[in-house]
């Protein structure tokens, strides 16, 4: 039983810190390196983890198996099946990275990503947690939530990630009201300074947000014209997904709100 518990602790820490090496993991879980190494090898054999480089010196990351299991548990496979064709159309119209995220445990979790063809792009790993108050996807979901859920979140600490992160509850209330009115949220370097995004909430049959859809762009490439175009595109795409799921309109007056996408980091590809 202890070996199973150790393996689960290691799995949790890899998910939180990936990519991560054995020494850092051992310090984090307060276990001997030999114990951590055995757990890693067991999890690799079971298909839960993989190494980013060959040999024991490689750093460890999750495979897609935990994400797939989570989708089965929460019904996200159905959401993804509906969303991906819409995301592909959206990416084709804007040629920027498109993210799909779902609310979970006071955050939003990235479950799908379609990348732009442009050499500088936003890269976030699947399974990444994004804060509700400092990401476009998060704000989209939060603005579409019930007043009670919003107030519950606003009573908690709102961590500052960059100089532009909104950490004042009253200021965030005002922004959420604006998101509901216009149907989309924006993020201009509030989680990562080099990332901007525009997002809208996807509403399920109950009228509650089941996901958020975002267009993510390096801040250096964002213009007022592209922001306006992205806002209309992502709002329309989120509404298409919501309608296919039997839900309503994401964030327009009379519905609920749109959101704002999470930050990441820019990467230049060859």
Could you characterize what this model shows?
This protein is α+β, with helices and mostly antiparallel strands. It folds into two domains: 2-63, Winged helix-like DNA-binding domain superfamily/Winged helix DNA-binding domain (Arc Repressor Mutant, subunit A); 67-268, GAF domain (Beta-Lactamase, 2-Layer Sandwich). Helices cover 43% and strands 21% of the residues. The chain has helices at residues 2-17, 22-29, 33-45, 65-74, 76-94, 136-143, 147-154, 169-182, 224-244, and strands spanning 49-51, 60-62, 97-104, 107-114, 120-123, 129-131, 185-188, 195-203, 209-218, 265-268. Strands 6-4-3-9-8-7 form a six-stranded antiparallel beta sheet, sandwiched between helices. Strands 1-2 form a two-stranded antiparallel ribbon. It has a two-stranded antiparallel sheet with strand order 5-10. The longest helix is centred in the last third of the chain and has 21 residues, at 224-244. It is globular and about 55 Å long. The relative contact order is 0.14. Residues 250-270 have low confidence and may be disordered.
CATH topology of the largest domain: Beta-Lactamase
The number of distinct structural domains comes to: 2
Q: What's the count of strands?
A: 10
Rounded radius of gyration (Å): 19 Å
Helix fraction, binned, reads 40-55%
Widest sheet: strand ordering: 6-4-3-9-8-7
CATH class of the largest domain: Alpha Beta
Terminal residue distance: 47 Å
Unreliable stretches: 250-270
How do the SSEs run, as a string of H and E?
Answer: HHHEEHHEEEEHHHEEEHE
How would you classify the helix and strand content by structural class?
alpha+beta
Query: Strand content of the residues, in percent?
Result: 15-25%
Q: Going by CATH, what is the homologous superfamily of the largest domain?
A: GAF domain
Sheet with the most strands, sense and barrel status: 6 strands, antiparallel
CATH architecture of the largest domain: 2-Layer Sandwich
What do the pLDDT scores average to? 83
How would the global form be characterised? globular
Q: Note the total helix count.
A: 9
